[in-house]
């Protein structure tokens, strides 16, 4: 006779063990480490909530203090490896195996620890892929999550940073795992129920908010004229001809520049209402001037952004907000929206090779992927047409025997300067990701966006339209043709590049009627964080690190 | 000064209008039609919940009775067009435009109405794609949904048929739309909270359960020996070499046969624990024998299946179940899991052309897609390796210059008999979907799975491995080579087909050591619905239409 309730009984045992340190669901914060030692077992699959924004930081700190002779070899399955404690637990042996998505601020240390063998790498995922595995083969046995507040029953309010929480909790709780939430306060009644109490097993009152990183704030003051030029190229050379209404912008100053050019340069081109109306996007402060100018119809958000809370509350037509008035974000649904309902993904990268493959791995850093692989890929399951998508499909295959069988293509654009931070060339013959794959004996190099999914590359030298390339050589020369004075750029076949330009595979600023001398900071709708605050009518409250007034 | 709360005020007006027919959130069922006339406006985007299983049937009926002079030209955005009322509203003019996914039982009538111009077609989507658009450009203004019960505050219990509800409600409610739920009963306390009350605006007590279609029940008695042969081929020719552990099965007798062969034929091949351990799957009754024999570790479900409720409750290690003991399904998450966390999708179709494109559109029927385009596509954003996925990638590109840059491939398998129901050939020179596209002047023919995503085709004549085909001609001959005595099959180039067989592009039963004479019904682990019930220890309670005892 098979036993069909091993997981349920295992959870019950953990519940009972945990209740030695709790009154009802409320765990004694003084005994948090002992509590974790009681509910965890060696080898557990654990999701310690954290992504590129919110962090269950109190629980992370406590987990880093558990007795490694009792709790060890955990298998961490979580979006972000961001806090020092996320890696401390691998150093101490509390954790051993890692499946994750993003590690921005820890990219150097995580690389060292991978090389040193302290982290056994499962895989680097795109967010939605890791969420998918929560329901199939990486269901957490314990989830340590973060919320703004809880009521006594355990209903949780996540506030604007809902992010991964509903997904992590659904997989864990219905998968018979244990859900432990740190909250900023216990209240009589939560402002809205983001997570119902019956999915939450324990609550810890941290008596302070969880940590949040303002990752999507770009100071307009730091935007260069070269970045403004790339933004003008993107708007006039891509947004206009494709008529891109539904899109996502990655992080970076180039796309921030696009956002700040919409109400100025974009207005002059008569684009208002014709492009950039519907977004899958975090609440970027640099989008405030475009929103205020009436460009934007609706934005769905992966997460929130520190300082944008009151602004979003005051713009309920634009943002998805709850009965409490604050944003409801949702990373899983927004990634799904980015995949299937957007016509364009445009973002930056650190390295692009001759085939158009890009990666954020450099010699000493493994930054992970976040959402880029998902949104920067052609959604082959997509079945609804749009003008932008159909046009891209026609360009890729102009002579299709049966046009009705020709799919469209997602526009996947890489934008950046030929030389990036510290004058490091963006274009390389060989991705550093390949060295990483060699060194760690990975089957798969950590490529962020594959060349066969990239449709355009934009630099200050021009736009390369890879959809129009008919073979590998053309593709390589199209890439070299916008790679400027990098080694890759200098090794171009000048004749072939000129030929590609005649075919509009490559378009220079002058081909688009853009004078690089016009790429002036005066074009930006805001020149500083303070301008953004003023544009918001004082509703945007920048974090102190961004204030100099 | 721009107005930023038009949607909120619009909802408030609808709320107030609706409250004339309600006590608190509870709508008077006698006044349901008048209530809908009060909360709806011409041109509204409306999601009338319904997919291939559960239906908000009371609300559908009421909507079909509203006064068309008051409520007309609605834009319906919903997974399923399944009930007669779903089309009645287009006939009367209450609705005009349609974005949907699936229309199985209404496939003939919907085709007639499209041809007749009574339905203005937006697009036919795959489920996850339509959900994605709920957050971008198809956010419902009103959602009419279905749940098992509600408490007085409006907390909803969906029971096992959670399905689309959380997704529809999240998009609608936080998008400032109005959510109206029909429930089977009002209770003091819901068994679990599937939808928190603050996302629900009105509740109608239908005093009976919503309608559910047992779409995923296949009677073993109806499985033919030809289907058993295709199942043997799939198991030995695909599941074994690729070592497929994480997968989805479509609907159909061929895959039902696979499920019923696991504990017999699969056991004999020593596959237990090596294949088919983790599933994105509805609770197929035909999987009961494999579950009982200990083959299955975990199943996440899109929806539920009528009669399987008690069985799932008694198998909590296998299914995602809630604190109330019953299944928690979730179509959005399960589709995501099917896309990103499964190595194989195997399903049937009605037509396959010479390029491997398949469609369920026939001359007079438009059945829609459901989940097949999503799960039957290569997830190009996937970044985690598995043996199955890597092997498929190697087969497609054996000579990659840089193996670490070679992605794997999702296994997308079409399985069926060369001649289907009514001896209609599955293989065609030209898809009927193309005629539909012509007739309706669609940019895009409604192709279910595109040939470039299909990796294998299995018929009783053998397996065609399209990954191994190096050009269009090889692909065409590989397809003809398993198309049997259909016209497509008879027009094969015999020499080329033999050559493909030498290269194992085509594998015949004998090439796999399978004697077609062994494809006997005695191999099935259950021969009838009653056997399935017995295998479940009486826990599976088949709907009466499947009972003949």
Task: Explain this structure.
Chains A, B: GO terms for molecular function: transferase activity. Chains A, B: This is Malonate decarboxylase alpha subunit. Chains A, B: InterPro entries: MadA (IPR005777), NagB/RpiA_transferase-like (IPR037171). The structure is a homodimer of 549-residue chains. In chain A, strand 14, helix 10 and strand 15 form a beta-alpha-beta unit. Chain A folds into three domains: 189 residues, Glutaconate Coenzyme A-transferase (3-Layer(aba) Sandwich), CATH 3.40.1080; 155 residues, no CATH class; 164 residues, Glutaconate Coenzyme A-transferase (3-Layer(aba) Sandwich). In chain A, strands 1, 2, 3, 5, 6, 7, 8, 9, 10 and 11 form a ten-stranded mixed sheet that branches. Helix content of chain A is 31%, strand content 16%. The longest helix of chain A is centred in the middle third of the chain and has 18 residues. Chain A is α/β, with parallel strands linked by helices. The model of chain A has no long low-confidence stretch (mean pLDDT 97). At the A-B interface, helix 1, strand 7, helix 6, helix 7 and strand 14 of A face helix 1, strand 7, helix 6, helix 7 and strand 14 of B.
């Amino acid at each position: 006779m098979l036993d069909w309730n091993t997981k349920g009984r295992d959870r019950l045992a953990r519940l009972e063990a945990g209740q030695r340190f709790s009154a009802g669901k409320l765990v004694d914060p003084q005994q948090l480490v002992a509590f974790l030692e009681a509910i965890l077992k060696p080898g557990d699959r654990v999701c310690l909530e954290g992504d590129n924004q919110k962090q269950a930081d109190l629980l992370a700190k406590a987990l880093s203090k558990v007795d490694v002779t009792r709790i060890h070899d955990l298998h961490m399955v979580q979006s972000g490896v961001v806090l020092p404690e996320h890696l401390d637990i691998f150093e101490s042996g509390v954790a051993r195996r890692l499946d994750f998505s993003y590690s921005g601020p820890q990219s150097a240390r995580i690389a060292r620890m991978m090389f040193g063998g302290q982290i056994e790498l499962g895989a680097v995922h795109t967010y939605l892929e890791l969420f998918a595995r929560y329901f199939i083969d990486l269901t957490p046995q314990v989830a340590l999550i973060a919320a703004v507040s809880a009521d006594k029953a355990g209903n949780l309010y996540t506030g604007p940073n809902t992010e991964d929480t509903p997904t992590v909790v659904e997989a864990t709780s219905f998968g018979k795992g244990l859900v432990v939430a740190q909250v900023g306060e216990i209240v009589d009644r939560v402002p809205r129920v983001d997570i119902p109490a019956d999915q939450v097993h324990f609550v810890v009152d941290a008596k302070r908010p969880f940590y949040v990183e303002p990752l999507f704030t770009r100071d307009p003051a730091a935007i260069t004229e070269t970045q403004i030029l790339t933004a003008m190229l993107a708007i006039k050379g891509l947004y206009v001809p494709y008529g891109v209404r539904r899109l996502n912008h990655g992080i970076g100053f180039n796309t921030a520049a696009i956002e700040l050019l919409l109400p100025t340069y974009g207005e002059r081109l008569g684009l208002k209402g014709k492009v950039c109306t519907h977004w899958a996007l975090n609440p970027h402060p640099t989008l405030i001037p475009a929103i205020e100018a009436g460009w934007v119809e609706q934005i769905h958000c992966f997460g929130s952004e520190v300082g944008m809370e009151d602004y979003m509350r005051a713009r309920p037509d634009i943002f998805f907000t709850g009965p409490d008035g604050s944003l409801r974000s949702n990373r899983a649904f927004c990634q799904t929206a980015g995949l299937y309902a957007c016509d364009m993904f445009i973002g930056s990268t650190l390295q692009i090779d001759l085939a158009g493959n890009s990666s954020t791995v450099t010699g000493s850093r493994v930054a992970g992927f976040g959402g880029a692989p998902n949104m920067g890929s052609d959604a082959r399951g997509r079945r609804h047409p749009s003008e932008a998508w159909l046009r891209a499909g026609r360009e890729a295959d102009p002579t299709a025997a049966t046009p009705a069988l020709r799919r469209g293509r997602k526009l996947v654009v890489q934008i950046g300067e030929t030389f990036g931070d510290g004058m490091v060339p963006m274009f390389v013959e060989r991705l550093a990701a390949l060295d990483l794959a060699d060194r760690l004996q990975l089957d798969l190099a950590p490529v962020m966006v594959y060349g066969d999914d990239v449709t355009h590359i934009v630099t200050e030298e021009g736009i390369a339209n890879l959809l129009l390339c008919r073979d590998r050589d053309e593709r390589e020369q199209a890439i070299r043709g916008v790679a400027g004075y990098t080694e890759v750029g200098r090794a171009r076949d000048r004749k072939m590049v000129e030929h590609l330009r005649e075919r509009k595979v490559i378009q220079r600023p002058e081909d688009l009627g853009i004078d690089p001398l016009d790429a002036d900071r005066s074009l930006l709708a805001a020149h500083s964080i303070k301008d953004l605050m003023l544009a918001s009518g004082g509703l945007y409250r920048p974090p102190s690190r961004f204030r100099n007034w």
